[in-house]
Amino acid sequence: MTWTPADLPSFDGRTVVVTGGNSGIGRHTAAALARAGAEVTIACRNVTAAEEAVAAMAADGATGVQVAELDLADLASVRGFAERWHGPLDVLVNNAGVMTPPRYRQTVDGFELQFGTNHLGHVALTAGLLPHLLAAEQPRVTTVSSIAHWRGRPDVLDGNQGGTYRPEHAYGNTKLANLLFAFELQRRAALVGSNLVSNAAHPGVSATGLVTSPQGLGAIPGVRPLAPAVLRLLFQSAAAGANPTLYAVAEAGPASYTGPQRLRESRGPVGPARMSRYARDEALAGKLWDLSLDLTGSRFDWG
Fold first, then answer.
1. Helices in the chain by DSSP H: which ranges?
2. Any idea which residues carry the catalytic annotation?
3. What is the pLDDT of residues 137-159, one digit of tens each?
4. pTM of the predicted model, to two decimals?
């Protein structure tokens, strides 16, 4: 379909949280929603970088963006963010993530870094913010996955623990977990009669800071100085990569999955994305849901 951020409806009076909104896909998502009238909070681990991003957004006409500290790799930080939030929340965009650190690393709470950050942190955040989402008239949760979810397997239930750490497989598992969580959240919302919409999107292959992050591939010598030029040459822009997320936030239906449509979903106009058979496995989703709540100590209170 032909859809661009210019097609966004008015978001006047609506509140939005975007995790990891200081760079890449998250930054362009936050800026576009702010231009549409939303009051946007970018929730970031690096507050200084986030404040610099907000200043740049404002200079480019995207006002109404503010910063809040959130470290998804620390469940105490996640709980603190949710406890500090006041008032209804219309949209939560679970966007932040870390990609393929070359060596095994753990979160503050002892989980493999990618599983703990990309999946468990967002589960705990969504659970903590659920009362505020349910206080909104038309609440939405959009979770950002990846074409890498095709690498995910049922051993996602192992939480990427174990003796053999494979960065790409571990990352794929977390992106599969994002989809399983998004769809299970929608199923549970429907079961209790809630009007909350949960869906997912993926950006294709975009030139973002995810590759150069020191928590991920940027830990490999030489990647950080060389990657930006290579990414800009080979891949679509981060702004284009944000379009599927923006469409999912604004228009896509419940339990939908949106992504680019060309070159094996690596770029192009937005539309329905394909997903693996594991992403459609409701039994696997239910098991992961229960496991995730146990690991994080979270509870979804539907009121």
1. 24-35, 47-59, 75-84, 113-114, 121-134, 167-191, 223-234, 238-250, 282-296
2. 171
3. 999 999 999 999 999 999 999 99
4. 0.92
